[in-house]
Amino acid sequence: MSQINKEMNYTLTNFNKVRIVMVNTTEPGNIGAAARAMKNMMLSQLYLVSPSNYPSAVATARASGADDVLSNAILCSSLEDALIGVNLVIGASARQRNIKWRQLDVIETCSEIQSTIASNNQEVAVVFGTENSGLTNEELDLCSILMTIPGNPKYFSLNVASAIQVFAYQNFVSSIDGKFDNSPKDLANFDDLNSFYKHLEQVLEHIDYFDSKKPKSLLMRRLRRLFGKSVPEKEEIAILRGILNKINPYS
């Protein structure tokens, strides 16, 4: 997919303070896919706790160019080691457990992350468990917040790399300040439009469009309304005038 250009204001601090922690990942392809998802959304801090079959050519292939995220990944022997220096620990889970953790959806979680980073540049870790069973209760004991990603209640089986992609995207959206520039260019003013309507009326008369079933006053009123709703730009009116000039013998 091609890149969409967009004016964005952001600070790299918002991304560098967030680490993704993958615990006991069994499929190296998921690590590579996670790295790709992270790089797309400007995350680079990847921590791997006792992964199986890693390093792996499969992971590198699935990273699809995000090799730097993989090569800089920090391998840890325990989750505790991966959380050293972190101020807020968030555990990803598809379900609530017997003991009630503070639970937020992914949107609320990313708002919490931004608040945490804004407070003295504190660091955040988002922890993802194994493909089959997620995080254990003992691993969740190390977390302050349980993050859920809403989905189909009758079927919710989100791949761990896909879950990281969803989080990374929402974190990106929450971190940037910018919108697509949909503002129009130089709008046609009253003089531009009025001259166009007169020109259009002249052409319609020339081609004998008006008749008793199409009263000129009513039709022109409708045409003014039609073009008025579109809020045309000067350049667009100029194009329409150019077309009319090919018809109007008085041009």
Which radius of gyration do the C-alpha atoms yield?
Answer: 29 Å
Q: How much strand content do the residues show?
A: 5-15%
The residue fraction in helices comes out at: 40-55%
| Low-pLDDT segments, ≥5 res | 1-5
SSE arrangement, N to C: HEHEHHEHEEHEHEHHHH
Oligomeric state as shown = single chain
Strand line-up of the largest beta sheet:
3-2-1-6-4-7-5
- Bulk shape: elongated
N-to-C CA distance: 47 Å
The assigned structural class equals alpha/beta
Structure explained in plain terms:
By secondary structure, the chain is of the alpha/beta class. Helix content is 43%, strand content 13%. It is built from 11 helices and 7 strands. Strands 3-2-1-6-4-7-5 form a 7-stranded parallel β-sheet. Helix 2 (28-40) packs parallel to helix 8 (160-175). It is elongated. The model is unreliable at 1-5 (pLDDT under 50).
Features:
251 residues; elongated; 7 strands; alpha/beta
Write the layout of secondary structure elements.
Blueprint: H1 13-16, E1 18-23, H2 28-40, E2 45-49, H3 57-63, H4 67-71, E3 74-76, H5 79-82, E4 88-92, E5 102-105, H6 106-118, E6 124-128, H7 137-140, E7 145-148, H8 160-175, H9 190-206, H10 216-229, H11 234-245
Parallel strand pairs: 1-2, 1-6, 2-3, 4-6, 4-7, 5-7
Write a compact overview of the structure shown.
The protein has 251 residues and is an alpha/beta fold. The protein has eleven helices and seven strands.
